[in-house]
Every structure is written in structure tokens, then in C-alpha cells.
Amino acid sequence: MALLSIRELHKSYGGAPVLSGVSLDLRAGEVHALMGENGAGKSTLIRILAGVTVADRVEARLDGASLGLGTPAEADRAGFRFVHQELNIVPALSVAENIFLGHPMPRRFGAAVDWKRLNARAAEALARFGVRHIDPRAKAGRLGVGDRMLIRLASMLVGGASPARLFVLDEPTAALTHAESDRLFRVIDELARGGAAILYVSHRIDEVMALASRVTVLRDGKVALSAPTAETSRAALIRAMTGREIAEGHPPRLATPRPSVVCRLEDLSSGRLSGLRFDLRAGEVLGVVGLDNAGQSDLLRLLLGEGAPAGGRAEVAGRSLPRSPAEAWRRGIAYVPRERRKEGLMSGRTITANTVLPHLSRLSRHGLARPRREAAEARRVAERLRLRFQHLSQPVRTLSGGNQQKVVLGRATLATPRLLLLEEPTRGVDVGARQDIYAALRGLAAEGCAIVLASTDLPEVLGLADRILILRDGRQAAIVGAAGLDPSSLLALIYGDEEPVPAS
Amino acid sequence: MTLLRRYATLIGFAAILLFFAISLPDTFLTSQNLINISQQVSMLAVVAFAMTVVMAMGDFDLSVGSMASLSGVVAATLFVAGWSVPAGIAAALAVGLLGGLFNGLLVAGLGILPFVATLGTLTMFSGIAFTISDGRTIFGRDIPEGFGTFARDALELGSLRIPSLTLVALAVLAVVWFVLEHTSYGRRLYAIGGNMEAARLAGVNVRRLRASAFAITGLGAAGAGLMVASRVASANPTQGAGLMLDAIAAVFLGMTMSEEAEPRVLATLVGVLILAVLDNGLTQLAVDSYVREILVGGIILAAVASARIGLGRG
């Protein structure tokens, strides 16, 4: 019997149905994946489970008994726990304090915090799902995103009105590296084995196939597919999500790289980066991979003009490294940052304002803004990237994640850059939007734009890159041709298990 | 709900106008009174417009009041030393520009929080004003004729006399509106206000822009200080002190009219007018000035609160 059974879930906003007649059965001890394109209704479904949004109509049963879903308190009493992409932790407090944040702390004499017991119980909570590498006394701000997620999970085990029975994880691996993701998967397994039900929301088909035993796909607010993962296939999932056949994978190259070198590093070092040595030609795509925080961001930020070289030589677009992002953009070096919301978007500002920002000087006349020209340019890139929007003056926060990412990419490619720096360009982006982004990158390469692509999505790097640079602790470990590599052999290179054959 | 949020402030303004029009049928809605209001509020308006420039970037400047006092004192002191009116004015404005630039360098160059940096310069500017003037009011024959009469001059338009201070405020409004709404510079300021890190990574020279915006605000504050000094034909080291809180309040009132809570200078104008009308009407009704402060504070809070309601996620 299902732990939680949802029938006839209906919800509409202002007459537009967002969910219509959705059913979902979650069983104890089972990982159930929830998939769907951006806007398919996943987020609404989760908000209804959390009691943040109230359904128009729903029949919910917990252990066969009728369950009211309406307030966060009810969801908490039912034992539902939620991990969102945006992690709220207090960086200045210790891990243990964060775990007990909002829950009663162990005390002595009724008032003073019993630090010894607090740390012990925090360590115990982490150990319940096999995590022993985090010190409860460490400052939470020092932890990476993956470990922050683990302390959020631990926090859910120590508190709440009743024991945790259902964990809802909303794209938990979107911001994680391979190692962090692997660790999270083990934790999820451990939680399921302990008898909890897991609802796992993800865009990543590979993860879903590996982790979940059942999968439900939403499309346009209806269940498009619900089946055991063993009885379905990647193709079937994509068809269910998009409603059409999408040639999954990566569009073919439109042209071969040109002879002219856009970027040349000769034994460059800076900060924690060292031994960087490569030529990047116009129209070439260089993938950058490594373990978590191996220096991918540092390399891209260095090319963007942040940080000074300590040794070696660098030549970018015929000159030395830019000294600031402002200079970089002026010289045709464009950047798509890793954290879309924190580093990419002015979320309250319009699509146009976000798109044209780095190009204002070119689009204005003697400093005088020309709104019609700005809008025309924004519309041109929006259409090229197949952005889904109502009007150009809507704030970008009203767009779905995939479309927000298209705005950031549109900003970088409004004028074809000479060098395009990309970090995780398809994180949290659905299959359809992802294909649009890949097609745009191919088009840019064909126009002679050199691309540096740092990504933790290995199939993506293998599908797009001509050559792949492997970083280990900030050091250039290898540079290899992408042809003939598969994800597992690339992963072996990343972990340093085998020595690569140098690419010519 | 959205409508209420968006227009609550305007509706409130209309209600206030209506209230005074009914309670003061003979004196409130007369052209003479409205012109008086425009003159009374012109100094605050200039400071508030200048404040909008830094607030567009999400910063603010607490030192505008003491900068206004300082500029008045500097001009008056130079007049005493025999400088001509234009030279004195230019010097006072230069002090405003440099003082504002100093704020900007503290904030953008050293990375000090605007609140802390401008709290520091607020005290400094005030201290300098006291030092220069020796704590005295400079007035009487020391102030040149031309400087003191400027504030009493007016542009005759038929039977209407538009006071020169009102015209100055309108000119400042036009310039700030043009810069914020119609130049690349203004768009970049709003981008910084939207997300400073994202703006920087998108090639906006955040440091230079922040420094320059603070310089503009300092210049505006100095200009307002000269207007105050001209109006009372004297200068003392505390006469601009009241401007800062009212200016910030006016910008906040204006921000409640924008869906994304962005400071826009035309909305700031509405904020300024609300404060001015309240002050004028309550004075005419002979409401005690302390009670007036309670009312004005309450209205600011009500406006901001009504803008928060329905924002939900806040």
C-alpha cells in the first residue's frame, strides 16, 4: 500500500489549469522520480504537498487515512520534509547549530546550550545516513553546496512535529559536483532503506534511471507517464516530457575550428591555478572538467579579467589578459556565470534590460539610450534562442528557469563574442530548452566564436567540446581530444585513474 | 490586490488632497497656496531627487543634510571673504561634488557599507561646517544682496508668479529624470540596484559608477544647501539637518508606487509632494508640529506596509 496517495489533484490560476486530475502514489522505502519540462506543474505539485499552495480539489490519503493538505504545519505533522535548490543556512553558525536551527537545542540547567550534547546529536543525525566527513563544530559557511544540502537533510531528521516520512528533493543535484552528487545518492538510498518515501524531482534522465524505482512525468499539468523505471526508457521519458520526438544528444558541428588562435596560455599561473597551457582557436569549443572546485570557475574568471597572473604568459584576442570584466566585455569576451540568480540576473528588471546591459554603449548614441533599438535587439536574440515570454518588459523572475538561462545566454551572445566563457550553461534547464541552447552554441562556433565550456554534465561536455581540459586542484592535469571518449573514460581521467594520451 | 499595491500611494495622496480641500475650503486649493507649497518644498525636492540617484543603485546617503549645511556655510564664508556670488556658489557646489565623491570612494573603493560610510561623513561634514563658521550664523550685510533676493525672485506668467526656487527644483527634476530614464548611465545604475554582482560580471564598471553617483548626490545636496541659504539669506551649520530623513522618506514613498520597488524620480516627486501637502495642510489646521511628525511618520509606514501586503513572499 502506498504511504501517500494523491488522486484527482486539480489546481488552476486565474482560470488557467496548472494541474488537472493528477494522481501520484508514493511508497515507503522507494525513490519516486518526478519529471517534466519547466512549467509542467512540478513546482505547483510540490508547493501543494508542502501546504504553501492550496489545491482546488484533491483526495490525499496517508497510510490509507484521509489527509488534509492546506498548511505547512499539516505537512510537517504528516512527516513531509522538503529540500529546495536554494539552501538556507546561516554561514556564521556552526554545522550543529544549523542542524538545530528552528528546533529546540539540548540544554543544561534549563537555559545554557549544552554544546557537547548538541555536537554529539548533530554528528549522530549526520551518521544516520552515513555521513562522517562533516565536523559538527565547523562553520557552515565553509562547506560546499553539497555538504550544505546534507546538513539540511540532517536538520530534518532531528526536528519537526513528527518523524520524517517523506522527503521531497527539488533538483538537489543541480548545483552539485559529481562527487557531491554521488554522496547525496548514497544518502538518499540510506533514507529510503530506513523506510522513508522519497520524491525526487530532476531534469537529469541518467540520475532518474539510476536512482529511482518509479517515475512520474508531468506534461501540461497532467500525468503523461507513470511507470517503474525498469519498464521505461530514456526515449519514452523524453517523449512523455516534450510530447514530441527530440533527437536527444548534441547537434552536429557546423564547421571545423579555424586556424586563428583566440586565446593562448603559456604555463600561466594565478592564485590556485597553475600550469595552464593551451591554444584555443576561433570556432573551437574547449570543455573544462574536474572534481568539485578544481579551479573551473577560477580559470573562467581569470579569462574574464578577475585576478592577476602570477607567472607565465597569456594572450587573449591579441592582447594580454583583460584587467576587469568591463574591459573583457568591451574586447568581445562574454561570460555566462555559474549561479544564474546570484551572478547572472537582475531578477526584478525586464528581459530587455537584462539582455542589453553589456551592450548599452554600442546601442546608445552619445550616452543617450535608444529604447526601441534595445527592444529590437532583445527581441532578435530572444527569438533566436526560442525564448518563451509574454512581453519583453516582463521581469525575468517571472520566467521559468530554462528561459532565464536563455536570457543570460542571450546577453552574452547578442553580438557574437570572440571568446565565450560558459559555466554550467544548462543547469536546471529542461530538455527542450537545452537543445535550443546547444544549437545556439553550435551556431556561434560556426561564426568563429571560441568557446570555453565548464560543466559538470559530462555527456554535455563530450557532445559539444572539441578538446577537454582536465583540472586537478587548480593544476592543468591534461588536455585531450573529445573524440572517442565516453563519460566513464572521461570520469577516469578526472579522478586521475589513468594517464591520458596527449592530444595534438 | 496588485492594483491596490500599485496605486495605494496615489490614492492616499488624492485622499489627503481631498481632505484638506474640504477642511480648508477657502485657503488650500488656491493657486497662491499651491505655489507656496512648491516653494516650501523645493529644497527637500532637490535633495530627494539627488537621493534617488544613489538609491537607484540600492545605496543611500545619510550625509546629504550636513552637506547642505556645509555648502551654505562655505558660500557665506566666501562671500564674507569678498568672493563674488557666482564664485561662491561654484565653490560651494564643488565642495558638494568632492564630498560626494569622497563618499563614493569610501563605498565603492574601500567597500564600506553606505550606511556606515555616510554616517561617518555626516558627522565629518557637520563638524567642518561648525569649524568654518565657528558655530555662528552668518547673516545680514555679510550676505550679498543678489544671493538673498534670488529666492524671492519669481517668473511672472500672467497673474502667476512661479518662484525661482520652484524653477530650480523643476530643472533638477528634469536633469535627474533625463539621466536616470534616458541614458545608458541611468540604465547601468538600475542594473547595479537590481543585482550588483551580476552587473559587474556583465561588464558594468560598478566602482566608477557608484563613485560618480555619490558625487552627483553630493552635488545635489550642496545645491539644496545654497537654496536654503538664499531663502533665509543666512547660513548656519545646522540648517540642512532636517532634509536627510525627509528625502529618504520621499524616495521610499515613491518606491511603493513601483511594482519592483525601484526608485523612480517622478515617483519621488509624488513622495515629496505628499510630505509637502501634509506639512502645509496640517500647519493651516493649526495641528501641533509634534503631532504632525507622528502623522507623517505613520503615513510613511502605512504606505510602505500597504506595498508589502500582497507581495506575499516579501
TrEMBL record, chain A:
SMART domains: AAA
Keywords, ordered alphabetically: ATP-binding, Cell membrane, Membrane, Nucleotide-binding, Repeat, Sugar transport, Translocase, Transport
A GO molecular function held by the record: ATP hydrolysis activity
Keyword Glycosyltransferase: no
Residues in coiled coil: none
Gene3D superfamilies: P-loop containing nucleotide triphosphate hydrolases
Domain ABC transporter: 4-245, 257-498
Protein name in UniProt: ABC transporter domain-containing protein
TrEMBL record, chain B:
Any one GO molecular-function label of the UniProt entry: transmembrane transporter activity
Keyword field: Cell inner membrane, Cell membrane, Membrane, Transmembrane, Transmembrane helix, Transport
Residues that span the membrane, as ranges: 7-25, 37-58, 70-99, 105-132, 162-180, 211-229, 264-282, 294-311
Assigned GO CC terms: plasma membrane
Entry membrane topology: Multi-pass membrane protein
Keyword Cell cycle: no
Matches recorded under CDD domains: TM_PBP1_transp_AraH_like
Location of the protein in the cell: Cell membrane
Protein name: Ribose ABC transport system, permease protein RbsC
Organism, as annotated: Rubellimicrobium mesophilum DSM 19309
Species classification: Bacteria, Pseudomonadati, Pseudomonadota, Alphaproteobacteria, Rhodobacterales
